[in-house]
């Protein structure tokens, strides 16, 4: 049964951060979600992408299961479908393939050409592989996307210039004069985003940087690697008394910091690039500046003109990549039909030899089998060449269907699989 590609997407393009953070998935939830996609919806090949700006489920299935997937995700998170379904968009077939390419490349990002999203897509693919939710079609598609990304990097200026959520968050410090270069900053979170934040702080001249993480060993290793200070996670709230700036990049189900954590501290500003948000809005009543993910997006758009000029060329490369993937799927489908056709001929061969060579010796039967096998191979050449040529012209579907109908290949294939 032929499967097509689809996606449901909740992103910054439609939903603000209050909605997006409701659907944020923890590491444990990713595994549970994959298992239930298979058990509940019968989707065995999928990829779940979760970032600070989007939650998406990509899938292969013979049917468009967008509505069922939105219902599933709402139920999985214990949220109302009636209230939240309008925040999702869905695509199927060619549009879904284009969407995945554009997401991975950064065309759909809050930060045009975002530097972090490609790595996030690669990690999502690795998780899909680890839980055995990726097979032939998904493997081919993702490697097609990776190659497309490489071509865009090599042949366009779309990725030129440092621009990402983590970079913009750090750049905000000097742009808004939130802290002088000698000031003390605490970074909470040692994941990919936290690591990038620390790197950008160092590169931009902020030397008094301290990092902590729920897993102390991970933060300690990162501090040694990047040449910054480390404190145990148990001390992070007490440490606010000595800091000018707090930067948070964690994945927490509820606010990590509330109003009481900032009373009588030296903190002047907080930059929260977590999803869901880790810092309560109420801290602003203390006169503390608070910035979140959406604030980053508003600032980033002002430096995107140089990338915008490359969008046309990037879309052409994406279109070519999607076309090549679809060409491969057609050839794969037609190859399956050729295999079925050859199998049908071999069944006829066995029946004829069995009916007409009962009195022959074993060696005579072997000669007959070899001769008729050569005949089958010669017969196969013409439809194989014809289908491949027709596939390149985009005309192979009718020929392939005629071949299946003439030899009843679908029915015979189903009988063999039973």
Structural commentary:
The protein has 418 residues and is α/β, with parallel strands linked by helices. It folds into 2 domains: 4-161, Beta Polymerase, domain 2 (2-Layer Sandwich), CATH 3.30.460; 167-301, NAD(P)-binding Rossmann-like Domain (Rossmann fold, 3-Layer(aba) Sandwich). The chain has 16 helices and 10 strands. The chain has a 6-stranded parallel β-sheet with strand order 7-6-5-8-9-10. A 4-stranded antiparallel β-sheet has the order 2-3-1-4, with helices on both faces. Strand 2 (46-50) and strand 3 (54-61) form a beta hairpin. Helix 5 (94-105) packs across helix 13 (311-356) and helix 14 (362-393) runs antiparallel to helix 15. The chain is elongated. GO terms for molecular function: glutamyl-tRNA reductase activity. Its EC number is 1.2.1.70. Substrate binds at residues 51-54, 109, 114-116, 120.
Strand order of the largest sheet: 7-6-5-8-9-10
Mean pLDDT: 86
Number of DSSP strand runs:
10
Domain tally: 2
Largest sheet: 6 strands, parallel
Strand content: 5-15%
Strand and helix order:
EHHEEHHEHHHHEHEHEEEEHHHHHH
Proper CATH architecture of the largest domain: 2-Layer Sandwich
Whole-angstrom Rg: 28 Å
Quote the distance from N terminus to C terminus: 14 Å
């Amino acid at each position: 049964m032929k499967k097509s590609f689809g996606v449901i997407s909740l992103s910054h393009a439609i939903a603000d951060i209050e909605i997006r953070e409701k659907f944020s998935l923890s590491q444990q939830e990713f595994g549970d979600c994959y298992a239930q996609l298979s058990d509940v919806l019968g989707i065995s090949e999928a990829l779940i992408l979760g970032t600070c700006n989007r939650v998406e489920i990509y899938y292969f299935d013979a049917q468009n299961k967008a509505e069922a997937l939105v219902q599933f995700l709402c139920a999985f998170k214990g949220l109302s479908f009636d209230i939240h379904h309008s925040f999702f968009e869905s695509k199927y077939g060619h549009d879904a393939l284009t969407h995945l390419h554009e997401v991975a490349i950064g065309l759909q990002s809050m930060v045009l050409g975002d530097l972090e999203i490609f790595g996030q897509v690669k990690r999502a693919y690795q998780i899909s592989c680890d839980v055995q939710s990726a097979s032939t079609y998904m493997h081919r598609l993702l490697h097609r996307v990776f190659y497309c990304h490489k071509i865009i990097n090599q042949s366009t200026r779309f990725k030129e210039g440092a621009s990402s959520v983590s970079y913009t968050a750090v750049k905000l410090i000097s742009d808004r004069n939130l802290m002088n270069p000698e000031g003390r900053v605490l970074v909470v979170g040692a994941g990919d985003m936290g690591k990038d934040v620390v790197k950008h702080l160092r590169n931009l001249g902020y030397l008094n940087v301290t990092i902590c993480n729920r897993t102390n060993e991970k933060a300690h290793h990162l501090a040694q690697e990047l040449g910054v200070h480390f404190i145990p996670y148990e001390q992070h709230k007490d440490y606010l008394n000595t800091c000018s700036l707090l930067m948070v990049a964690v994945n927490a189900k509820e606010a990590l910091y509330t109003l009481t954590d900032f009373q009588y501290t030296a903190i002047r500003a907080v930059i929260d690039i977590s999803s869901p948000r880790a810092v309560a809005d109420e801290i602003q009543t203390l006169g503390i500046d608070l910035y979140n993910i959406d604030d980053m997006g508003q600032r980033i758009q002002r430096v995107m003109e140089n990338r915008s000029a490359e969008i046309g060329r990037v879309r052409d490369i994406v279109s070519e990549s999607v076309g090549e993937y679809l060409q491969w799927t057609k050839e794969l489908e037609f190859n399956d039909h050729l295999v079925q056709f050859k199998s049908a001929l071999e069944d006829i061969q066995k029946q004829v030899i069995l009916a007409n060579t009962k009195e022959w010796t074993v060696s005579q039967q072997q000669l007959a089998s070899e001769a008729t096998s050569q005949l089958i191979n010669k017969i196969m050449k013409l439809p194989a060449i014809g289908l491949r040529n027709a596939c390149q012209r985009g005309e192979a579907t009718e020929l392939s269907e005629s071949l299946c109908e003439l030899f009843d290949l679908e029915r015979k294939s189903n009988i063999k699989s039973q």
